[in-house]
Design goal:
Length: 244
């Protein structure tokens, strides 16, 4: 429990926010939608102003998705590296939006590109968080065949985060797609094993297994709900908790 003078007390002191690249598209079919990026930055700002230490991982599917490139005949390793570069572009866009709001932010890449972001050094990244800087981890794990879900779980463990917040377009985990089936049922909480056994699609299997092995809770919530991120940190709101 974190309670700092001048800040609203929250149940988490350091969290990982994982969002997809598609979340940055807005109503477009491709690329970045600056007003949407700014709106998401507002959500992050509201939490950072509470005194919570925030790190982020953003997917790259709005620009390039490695699996799709591979399916179209591209060599898988090359396609995955291209997807990693897409996540760097998204991270830089989010950094710009956050800094426009007066927040200090660092982009840290698993692939060295020193002219635009820092290389990944665990102790340096932790120090950034301790100084209340928002840290955006880009380029996944730096290895092909691993998704940004796995990268988010890996970095969350390395940063000693207390939870992963997975921002989606729905307010939790459902037993079927709620946008297609009106009878879809939302879980208030669900175990890691149930997610794997029922193929609930929270994150890929390797990410879920890594979170389970380290008892790292995953909070699935709607990123489209204004103020939803902050509300959950205050102990309210609608979400699904994935736990042991």
């Amino acid at each position: 429990m974190t309670k700092e003078q001048g800040h609203t007390p929250t149940q988490y002191g350091r969290v990982m926010l994982k969002i997809s690249g598609e979340a940055l598209m807005g109503d477009q079919g491709f690329g970045l939608h600056p007003p949407t990026v700014s709106r998401i930055a507002d959500e992050v700002e509201s939490v950072a102003r509470m005194g919570v230490e925030v790190c982020m991982v953003i997917g790259g599917g709005n620009i390039f998705r490695g699996l799709q490139g591979s399916a179209q005949g591209m060599e898988r390793t090359t396609a995955d590296y291209m997807g990693m570069l897409a996540t760097v572009m998204n991270a830089l866009a989010m950094q710009s939006a956050l800094e426009a709001k007066g927040l200090h932010c660092r982009v840290i890449s698993a692939i060295r590109m020193d002219e635009v972001c820092e290389p990944y050094i665990r102790r340096r990244a932790i120090r950034h968080l301790e100084k209340k800087r928002i840290v955006i981890f880009a380029a996944g794990t730096g290895n092909p065949y691993f998704t940004t879900d796995t990268a988010a779980t890996l970095r969350a463990n390395e940063m000693n985060c207390e939870a992963i917040f997975k921002g989606t377009k729905v307010d939790g985990v459902y037993d079927m797609d709620p946008k297609k089936y009106t009878e879809a049922r939302r879980y208030d909480s669900v175990t890691y094993d149930e997610v794997l056994q029922k193929h609930l699609g929270v994150m890929d299997a390797s990410a879920i297994a890594l979170a389970r092995d380290n008892r790292l809770p995953i909070i699935v919530f709607s990123l489209d709900e204004p103020g939803g991120f902050r509300t959950i940190l205050e102990g309210r709101g609608t979400y699904t908790r994935v736990h042991i």
